[in-house]
Amino acid sequence: MADGAPRSCQVEGNTEDPLQAYRAVRILRPSTDLSGNYTCAVSTFMHEDRRTRHMLVYSPGKSFHFIQEKKYVFLVTLKCVAEELYPKPEMSIISQGEPLKQTVTEVVMNSWGLYRVSAAAVVHDDDVAAPAEQFVCELRLPPSDLVQNRTTLYHRGLMPTSQIIGGEPLEKAQERHSNGEFNYNVMFVG
User: Fold this and answer.
1) pTM (2 decimals)?
2) Of 118, 128, 184, 190, which has the fewest CB atoms closer than 10 Å, so is most exposed?
3) Which of 149, 33, 22 has its CA nearest to residue 90?
4) Res 98 pLDDT > 60
């Protein structure tokens, strides 16, 4: 077995039965390169049984941002970015429960095998159903069941969200950022 994954690990608790004490494997430092098929074999004097399952070590990312940029009075650009993800992510920008058709998505793998995904959509004020509309950026990591969301509330007709004052951009309240810190996670698929 690879470094960081000992061959046997005694199960914690009040297991005094030696036939039950070593029924687990502890992975000390999981990383995405440990993803793959694993087989467990159990033998008795009369029978042997084997089962193979796929183990996925995934990275939900180190940052996940959803912002809106308004450079013109009647147009807003919604931008969503997530970094250091594994496996290959999917991202969409959603309005009223439906993905925006004009969303442009880009997925790039870095030299470590982790992904960066970005999505952008330009929305005209005429396409906003109410004076204010909530947009959702949805991030998925198939085949895991991980789904993360970021939201932003857009108010149509407002002036641009950033102005240049003395050479420095001044961020307005309408531009919203979100981010978080994550570690690797392990799950069995199938």
Assistant:
1) 0.70
2) 190
3) 149
4) yes
